[in-house]
Amino acid sequence: MTKREKAAAIQAKLEALYPEIPIPLDHRDPYTLLVAVLLSAQCTDKRVNLTTPELFARADNAADMLQVPVEEIKAIIRPCGLSPAKSKAIAELSRILVEEHGGEVPQSWEALEALPGVGHKTASVVMAQAFGVPAFPVDTHIHRLAWRWTLSTGKSVAKTEADLKRLFPPESWNSLHLQIIYYGREYCKARPHDPQACPICAEYGRRSLFKPGAKQAP
To answer: Which of 7, 93, 209, 216 has its CA 20 to 30 A from that of 142?
Structure first.
């Protein structure tokens, strides 16, 4: 079986398991999604979804967020961790959106990645989930599973993204990255992980996974 054939077989399994793919972060528009994704760095989606209602009740657009003191933003988002840096990023990106983009989130990779606190992964999520542009955001789940399934060498997140984009058709990227995330959370966790009990690893997993004391992630 070629790597591309394996990728197609894995995709078919994921489609069967997750025919409906809800977006994990609660949001109403590109701006609230952008802020939610920024908050999700080193934080669970569940915690973000518990935190954003209070923040968005205070301000749910760039212009209104500019009126909220950074210290107040920091206090609201403290449960998400890294609140000093994240609050400053939210305030500053809101200012840039108002001053340079008419208060709207730009539909541009370059403009998104130029915003404070917004790296390639965050920009990819916004482009995919807010604007429907084909993107393949790679989080820790996707990085781990791509390595376990020998779809990527796992040498870096950038390499994993490039490998997966070569194996899967662009029209599938926006749904597939979410399917892999949900699968990783439900069946293929970092630890404990039993490859024999994992529906995809049992059939397509890296052979070294099945050895006692084997390395489980890149």
So the answer is: 93
Structural domains in the chain, sorted by start: 3-20+137-210 (1.10.1670.10), 30-129 (1.10.340.30)
Q: Quick one: pLDDT band at residue 213, thresholds 50, 70, 90?
A: confident
Contacts of residue 141, defined as CB under 8 A and 6 or more positions apart, other chains included, come to: 180, 181, 183, 184, 185, 188
The runs of H, that is alpha helices, within the chain are: 3-17, 30-39, 45-58, 62-65, 70-77, 83-101, 109-113, 120-129, 140-148, 157-167, 170-186, 201-204
How does pLDDT run across 72-102, given as a tens digit for each residue?
999 999 999 999 999 999 999 999 999 999 9
163 an active-site residue? no
178 contacts 24 by C-beta, under 8 angstroms = yes
Asked if 189 is an active-site residue, the reply is no
Of 88, 139, 159, 165, catalytic: 139
**pLDDT, tens digit, 9 for 90 and up, residues 12-25:** 999 999 999 999 99
CA 57/CA 39 separation, integer angstroms? 16
Q: Tell me the C-alpha distance between 32 and 18, whole Å.
A: 25
Torsion, Cα 146 149 153 154, to 10 degrees, reads 40
pLDDT at 192: 85
